[in-house]
Amino acid sequence: MEKILITGCNGLLGQKLVHRFQNDFVVYGCDLQNEKYLPDVDFTYQPIDITKRHEITHFITQTAPAFVINSAAFTDVDGAETQRELCWKVNVEAVENLVTGCRKVQAHLVQISTDYVFDGTKGPYHEADVPNPQGHYAKSKLAGENIVVGSSINWAIVRTMVLFGYGVNLRPNFVTWLISSLRKGKQVRIVDDQVGNATLAEDLAEGIFQVVRRKKTGIFHVSGADILSRYQLSLAIAAAYHLDKNLITPIKTADLKQKAPRPLNSGFILDKARTELELKLPSVQEMLTTFKRQYE
Ligand SMILES: NC(=O)c1ccc[n+]([C@@H]2O[C@H](COP(=O)([O-])OP(=O)(O)OC[C@H]3O[C@@H](n4cnc5c(N)ncnc54)[C@H](OP(=O)(O)O)[C@@H]3O)[C@@H](O)[C@H]2O)c1
Fold first, then answer.
1. Does ligand 1 come within 6 angstroms of the Cβ of 161?
2. For the domain that residue 48 is a member of, what is the CATH number?
3. Mean local confidence (pLDDT), 173-180
4. What distance in Å separates the CA atoms of residue 193 and residue 150, rounded to the nearest whole number?
5. Residue 242 C-alpha to ligand 1 middle, in angstroms?
6. Residue range of the domain that includes 34
7. Does 296 map to a domain?
8. How far apart are CA 37 and CA 9, in angstroms?
């Protein structure tokens, strides 16, 4: 079996990747924590900070994987505005380290990226559309992409958006936060002027699996099929979980006064994922039906 290294394997996507790849590859995983969050899954875990150049390149040369999937990232979009240096180290400089490691063992690098590389003025976006990132997180993710694109190694970039799912020891994501707030009877204010595709983490892991299995190169957009506003998504979640939709009030993004700008009119054109990866990308209803089986 071929070997694969998954960085950020304790994160939301990382956990789903470990599950998806474990039967077909010899899996190695690394993350910041001392222990793996999936102790019952058979894969080799090593605590590694990917910004530590020597440690990560040594691990890659030692294990010599055929593929490296970089799902580690600094993902706090507003926090990135104040922790600029750390964000850049993780999302840009660490990608250089991975490219160096991959070059040494001729590994294929799959970099995970985001719709935030676009400014959200004219979505939905095709893979070939020109990025124009706005906040610091967004700029760092595009800079990470550019390092990969400019390298001479085999690479793929998988962009996704509004990722949700359930896993071990994870921070709340939009969907789990909304369900838990509505269950407590809390009033929530949700923006109706940010549109995009929600993505179930397992479906993204499947998309990445197909990229790897087919040794695909280039950029791929992978997400759920429907383009909805966050408010519409919230109503669908409330309906699926039989929660009170009257607790949800629509507001505008500007009302939140967040530190980082958001792409408002976003969304992905998914033809390439459907044709080249043969993905059946689910509707919001289908994703929520699947999610309800794991998150009651
Ligand atoms: N979540 C979304 O809505 C979304 C949307 C679009 C794209 N993405 C992209 O999808 C990818 C996966 O996101 P996710 O939601 O699964 O993120 P996540 O749950 O935050 O997982 C990222 C993992 O990487 C770890 N990490 C951070 N810095 C590291 C470092 N220096 N060395 C090694 N590991 C490090 C994190 O540890 P700590 O938790 O301790 O920091 C965490 O375990 C990222 O590239 C993200 O940019 C996410």
1. yes
2. 3.40.50.720
3. 97
4. 35
5. 31
6. 3-163+199-221
7. no
8. 8
Task: State the closest ligand 1 atom to the C-alpha of 13, by its place in the atom list counted from 1.
Answer: 16
Q: Verify that 253 and 158 share a domain, yes or no.
A: no
Percent of all residues in the chain with a pLDDT value above 90, rounded to a whole number: 100
Q: How many independent structural domains does the chain possess?
A: 2
Residues 245 and 206 in one domain: no
Q: How far is the CA of 262 from the centre of ligand 1 (A)?
A: 18
Query: Where are the extended beta strands (E) located within 25-132?
Result: 26-31, 44-47, 67-70, 108-114
- CB of 230 closer than 8 Å to CB of 190: yes
pLDDT digits (tens, 9 = 90+) for 138-172: 999 999 999 999 999 999 999 999 999 999 999 99
Q: pLDDT tens digits for 4-24?
A: 999 999 999 999 999 999 999
Q: Is 274 inside any structural domain?
A: no
Query: Which of 18, 34, 54, 75 most suits a substitution to test ligand 1, by most atoms within 8 Å of the C-beta?
Result: 75
The whole-number pLDDT of residue 54 equals 98
Q: What is the structure's pLDDT at 212?
A: 98
CB atoms within 10 A of CB 258: 14
Residue 47, in any domain of the structure = yes
26 and 147 in a common domain: yes
Protein residue closest via CA to atom 19 of ligand 1: 11
Closest atom of ligand 1 to 49 CA is: 32
Distance 74 CA to ligand 1 centre (A): 6
Q: In the prediction, which pLDDT does 9 show?
A: 98
Q: Relative to the CA of 89, which ligand 1 atom is closest? A: 31
Cβ 87 under 6 angstroms from ligand 1: no
Same domain, 68 and 213: yes
Cβ contact 116:137 at 8 Å: yes
Indicate whether 22 belongs to any domain.
yes
Confidence bin at 28 (pLDDT 50/70/90): very high
Q: Are residues 131 and 109 in the same domain?
A: yes
DSSP H or E stretch at residue 218 = strand 218-221
